[in-house]
């Protein structure tokens, strides 16, 4: 019986270690959700704290933009459409986290039917500065029928 209990405890510990997310992965997942919520709210002050001062975006229209341009657009009244982001992979390399996945963007007609939303692929790059993470780069591309 003692052997069985030892094997069971060992199995549970190993399983927990193998499948548990690291603190960094949990934090990146939280930040991914948080900065999207801030964008939805138009909270430029909080976004500027999450974005690195060198943050750069290659947007779905193929234009490269910086925080200055994004904030200016938001302050002029532009509202970004809602986005549902599905993280498929987070890779860590020293102080860099690379997040890749799929996202669905609400179309201009603001339909809530997710089946009508525009599918895209994305890559977000985070850098750890001290104890916190900042978003330093983003790329997003619409998935065309040919790419599906």
Automatic annotation (TrEMBL):
It comes from the Bacteria. It comes from Maribacter orientalis. This is DUF4440 domain-containing protein. Residues 1-20 form the signal peptide. The keyword Heme does not apply. The lineage of its organism: Bacteria, Pseudomonadati, Bacteroidota, Flavobacteriia, Flavobacteriales. Residues 28-135 form the DUF4440 domain. It holds the Pfam family DUF4440. The keyword Oxidoreductase does not apply. Keywords: Signal.
